[in-house]
Write a structure and sequence with these properties.
Length: 711
């Protein structure tokens, strides 16, 4: 029977679980409300009296909505959001009634025993103090799990001495410096009315959905998020029949629930569609300021996973859950705008005359060229190593796609110092009388570029699907701030800003034009060409991690107060440790699954086959049993290969795990263990194609990718 569902009113639902502007206006004394608004938009520190008043209103609102607990919600370097729950209960009065308390102090600061979070040596275990501090620019929200309601307060997480132990602190620092330097540029261009400049971000999230029942039968998915074994089914994604395909009923119902939950949390989920690989989907929100976009993307990942469970599905956020079909990423759309609505990356109708836009563009290109290694690093993780450089996601080489219009303008400026015209879009003839002719965009898209200009924003396409988008935005904001600072320093000295700006634009474009590439980023020729241009090609995370502590990075980040040298060192250690740990888990999972499930299945199969050969022979001595014997031979061979490579993996992993130095340990996992894992997988996957399906203990790729059951 068709389930009857309530009608949804988005306007009423939106932000229902958020202590946002509407609730604050209703519940806070007018003067307090105004002060809080100012603090949120202009970034003052919160006064204790104001904090108390906000805390009081927040608690009342939360308790009225059924909340019993509150938590400081933060994003430590483990990459997963963390929280510590406290109830509102503060004591009992003389008559035995519960006293509820939530003060400004509770709201603003909390001490979390931080010793178990990764700190890369910033803090020894005996110096366990860590503090979470309210980020008043990201509103508190209610998390509802059935009857359990919790007030979640977005916070930054710092060590006792003030070093950042999270992603939010450096992100906020980077937004602050970008604001400061961009305002200087605006001023030079006579724009005085803007109070602030902020980066806007919209993150398109890709993910896979498979049957939860099948997921639970695969320990590799459970422990590592990806399949460590599995041979390709007869069909993959070659027909492109999944991309933008009609949503199956069950998936459509799932997406509807995801949207509703996100809307209630004030996340403006907008576009949902099927992606290239079977069972792969995408969700895109409407863009918003970077800090909110980062928090909201964390919430999106959380909601996707929770809702999947409710629909009997499992949401896989890993960058490469299945070998042989596309992996998942996150497109980080990024632009820079003022409170007055001016987007510095909007070329307008006559881009060749828009000097502010062209200067911003030149600064972005200079920034990306100078710090391509840092951008690459910001997308480095173990899962993404399977994607970047493979024929699907952007290559590991950073380049910028500008499109024909901007490329033409750039060429004009480099040649003559100014640009005198802009190519315009053409009319697109449909040749059907009943269809209108269209006005085509000036530039086509380029799906192979890691950093593409798309109309009024750049789209950084390298970030992994399971990762926070914070690192990418920290780097983008900081490197643009650096170029803005250099530009402002120079233009502020000039007698004619206009002339000096043209000169600077030309200089930057000429110097950094090597970063512009409009061709096919997946091709081998590009790899060669990029090498000729001297662009870095950091193929794996291990190659990318040293960028954290290069002289250039230390100078950049310390000059802007984003990270101290100590913080950078700690982050590189965390990255090495994380790499080694994750490969170690994958290796141990393979050793386990092959030892406990696959080898026994293969033994069972060959024994059964041998018995049957004997039985056939004894029933009919002349019978041709060559087919069975061939299979027996092949399966036994693969079985012995599998056993041997499993043992090698085991001993090599033990050896790698014993290496003390984090960088050397990670390198050993990268070279030796990854190679051993590949060899073990080869024999196992070959066996899967030989052995009876009913004997193979793991759901196959075909079962998972093509048979999502409809309830
Ligand atoms: P596509 O990737 O197909 O170009 P859209 O143009 O719809 O798709 O945008 C994708 C994402 O980019 C969405 O999340 C959207 O909100 C975001 N976006 C659009 N304009 C901007 C902007 N100026 N700054 C940052 N993000 C933006
Ligand atoms: Mg996109």
């Amino acid at each position: 029977m068709e389930e009857k569902r309530e009608r949804v009113n988005i306007a009423e639902l939106f932000g229902e679980n958020v202590f946002g502007d509407r609730v604050m206006r209703e519940r806070l004394p007018k003067a307090v409300y105004q002060r809080v608004r100012e603090m949120m938009t202009e970034g003052y520190e919160l006064e204790p009296a104001i904090a108390d008043s906000v805390a009081q209103a927040m608690k009342e609102w939360a308790v009225e909505n059924g909340a019993t607990h509150y938590t400081h919600w933060f994003q430590p370097l483990s990459g997963v959001a963390a929280e510590k729950h406290d109830s509102f209960l503060s004591g009992v009065d003389a008559e035995g009634r519960a006293l509820l308390e939530f003060s400004g102090k509770n709201l603003v600061r909390s001490e979390a025993d931080a010793s178990s979070f990764p700190s890369g040596g910033l803090r020894a275990t005996f110096e366990a103090r860590g503090y979470t501090v309210w980020d008043c620019t990201s509103p508190a929200f209610l998390r509802k799990e059935g009857d359990c309601v919790t007030l979640c307060i977005p916070t930054a997480f710092c060590a006792y001495a003030g070093e950042a132990l999270d992603q939010k602190t450096p992100l906020l620092r980077s937004m602050q410096v970008l604001n400061r330097e961009a305002l200087r540029i605006l001023k030079l261009f006579g724009i005085d009315d803007a109070k602030w400049v902020k980066p806007s971000v919209g993150a398109e999230q890709e993910y896979f959905l498979i049957d939860r029942e099948k997921y639970l039968k695969r320990k590799d998915l459970i422990y590592t998020g990806r399949t460590l074994f599995g041979s390709m089914p007869a069909k993959g994604q070659e027909l492109d029949d999944h991309y933008f395909g009609v949503l199956r009923k069950r998936i459509a119902a799932f997406m509807r629930d995801v949207d509703m939950e996100l809307w209630k949390l004030g996340v403006s989920a907008k576009t949902e569609h099927n992606e290239v690989a079977p069972c792969q989907h995408e969700l895109a929100p409407i863009f918003e300021e970077a800090n909110l976009a980062v928090d909201h993307n964390q919430l999106t990942m959380e909601i996707l996973q929770k809702q999947a469970g409710r629909h009997g599905l499992e949401c896989l956020l890993h960058e490469k859950p299945f070998a042989g079909v596309n992996g998942s990423g996150k497109h980080n759309n990024w632009s820079v705008s003022t409170d007055t609505g001016l987007n510095l990356l909007n070329p307008g109708k006559r881009p060749h005359e828009n000097q502010l836009f062209l200067l911003t563009l030149a600064c972005v290109l200079a920034a990306v060229d100078t710090h391509a290694d840092l951008l690459r690093l910001s997308a480095a993780n173990v899962g993404n190593d399977h994607r970047l450089g493979a024929d699907e996601a952007p290559p590991a080489i950073i380049s910028c796609f500008l499109g024909s219009q901007l490329e033409d303008i750039v060429a004009q400026i480099i040649e003559t110092g100014v640009a005198s015209s802009s190519l315009s879009g053409k009319s697109l003839e449909t040749h059907v009388d009943t269809l209108p002719n269209l006005y085509a965009d000036v530039t086509d898209r380029n799906r192979t570029s890691p950093f593409a200009f798309t109309g009024n924003k750049f789209e950084f396409r390298m970030v992994g699907s399971g990762d926070s988008i914070a690192s990418a935005n920290i780097v983008l904001n900081t490197i643009l701030a650096e170029q803005f600072r250099l530009a402002a320093d120079r233009l502020e000295q000039a007698s004619s800003v206009k002339e000096a700006a043209w000169e600077l634009i030309r200089e930057l474009l000429s110097k950094h034009q090597r970063i512009v590439f409009n061709g096919n980023g997946y091709s081998e020729e590009w790899v060669q060409e990029a090498a000729r241009r001297g662009l870095p090609n950091l193929k794996s995370s291990i190659d990318a991690i040293p960028a954290f502590t290069s002289k250039k990075a230390v100078e950049l980040f310390s000059a802007f107060g984003i990270y101290s040298e100590t913080e950078l060192k700690s982050r590189s250690i965390v990255a090495y440790e994380n790499y080694a740990k994750r490969i170690n888990i994958e290796s141990r999972a393979m050793i386990n699954i092959s030892g406990k499930q696959l080898i026994p299945a293969a033994i069972h199969y060959v024994t059964r086959l041998a018995t049957s050969v004997n039985q056939v022979k004894s029933a009919c001595a002349a019978a041709d049993v060559s087919a069975q014997e061939d299979l027996l031979l092949r399966a036994s061979e693969l079985l012995s290969d599998m056993k041997r490579s499993r043992e090698k993996l085991q001993s090599d992993t033990d050896l790698a795990a014993s290496i003390q130095d984090p960088a050397a340990r990670a390198a050993a996992y990268h070279t030796q263990i990854v190679a051993d894992m590949r060899i073990l997988r080869e024999s196992a996957d070959a066996l899967e194609t030989v052995i009876d399906k009913d004997l193979w203990p793991l759901p196959s790729y075909g079962d998972m990718l093509f048979e999502v059951s409809e309830p």
